[in-house]
Amino acid sequence: MSIFLVYPGVLVGRRGGIPCEGNGFPSLGVNYLATVLRQTGHKAIVEDIFSGEIRGNPWDIWSPSKRLEKQLAELKPHIVGISFLTPSRRESLLAARVVKRFDPNIRVVAGGPHATIMHGQLLANYPEIDVVVIGEAERTLCEVVEAFELKECLQDVKGVAFRNESSGSIVVNPPRPLIENLDVVPFPDYGEYLCSLPNKRMSIASVVTGRGCPYGQCNFCASQSVWPGYRYRSVKNVVDEVEIVVKEYGVENIHIHDDTFPSPAERAVCICKEVVKKRIEVILDCKATLNSATRDFLYWYRKAGGRSIFFGLESGSQKVRELMGKPRVSNKQVEFMVRMLREAGIKVGIFVMFGYPGETSRDVQATCQMLKRLNPDRVRCTLTKVYPGTRLYQYAKQHKMLTDGYWLSEARRHRYFSFASDDEVAEIRKLDLLLREEFRGLDIWSEYDEQDIPYADESGTKHDALGEQYVEEMKTSGRFNSTTYKRGKRAGTQVSLGSASLYIHPQRHQSCQLPCTSSRSPQKSS
Fold this sequence. Notes:
Blueprint: E1 2-7, E2 11-15, E3 18-21, H1 28-39, E4 43-48, H2 64-75, E5 79-83, H3 89-102, E6 107-111, H4 113-117, H5 119-125, E7 131-133, H6 138-149, E8 160-163, E9 170-172, H7 191-196, E10 204-207, E11 210-212, H8 223-226, E12 230-232, H9 235-249, E13 253-256, H10 265-277, E14 283-288, H11 295-303, E15 306-314, H12 318-324, H13 331-344, E16 347-354, H14 361-374, E17 378-383, H15 391-398, H16 422-438, H17 468-477, H18 482-491, E18 501-504, E19 511-514
Parallel strand pairs: 1-4, 1-5, 5-6, 6-7, 10-13, 13-14, 14-15, 15-16, 16-17
Antiparallel strand pairs: 2-3, 7-8, 8-9, 11-12, 18-19
């Protein structure tokens, strides 16, 4: 059978003035699935809708639905698999509708984190979706394809939810056991993706050495709902893939996509030693928890090509970090960890978030002061986002901040300012100004929201970056500061209105739709 795997992606920034998806490398998940399907004799094609900029045709990303229709006409697939991530769920749904409009007989299979957690809601509200693969998909999707090919019922396929065609009721099958030995999963085959690139060469790729998080404690993270427990690949298996990606595909930079790579540290050290032993020339970056990197790991990581590590500090207040459920680490231990990275010659990246329930203005000041002391090479700041499948989401529902119906909104622009008072909106604007004042001289990269990205509607009409109608609505409501808008446009900073992040007010715990603060690789002022 012919299977078309679609990854809508998430627009998170700009490169050279062009919006781009993620870090500019192909999606791991759909490429894993495509490789498995090809090995079982099926034709599988992968399409990252928002990778047109990488392929030398950037304007494709303005009209993804037209691009998808063109692909469907060329490929004539029997099945279309669509990745559903929470931030891009509307784009995923649009893709499903385009498929069914093109040919109602094509089977649409949804997968990914959002579909795994909200499978019942998707099937109950969107007839465009025929089947949802829950959790790990390599084995499940192959069985789904086989069942469709043989025209058999999905009743015996573990790890799926589907709509009964006769009764219309939703059927959720028993879960599929996880793949214990990850070494049996074949490496992603990037051959077709490589052929589509202008110079037939990939400069960056991602590798995942394990699935899940060894800690799994953070209240704002859905990792344990998607990947229960923690499993990791053998050292040889990981290094073999790194070698193939570098030598066969010409990759120069590899992002290690694990939730925390240096855990366990002994295994991470062995991987780095093997990369050095095989003389694989590559630049590495990864994420780590505050207490996971040892001196031995940092030494071998640097020798293997490691240039940077991002840590999830999240807050300079130990109290707030404990409220978040993060591993218990003191501020002195954080500072010691950063000094170790400096000594090893590794650049330091820091994730921080604001607006967590229980956070006060004093805690925000503590975070700013902490960042000043740490002086990281890169900072990424966001307001607290609530995702399904997290303990924070359960907290939000219990306190009647939102319901499951929140995820059904299909509006491109969310307008939930009515949930916030004028004082609360002003408070967040002050926070944005505070960050820029505290870190004056640093080059801050905005994390773009939907208002910053031009798009074409289904009629093909291109809209301005923010949208004049939206601006007028905000002015009419009295919640739009035109001076801030013009200043932001001139300065190239993010307009501090209209993001799709759900902000939880730190003291009153009221939900409102407010902007993400943002970051870029900071450059030290002279």
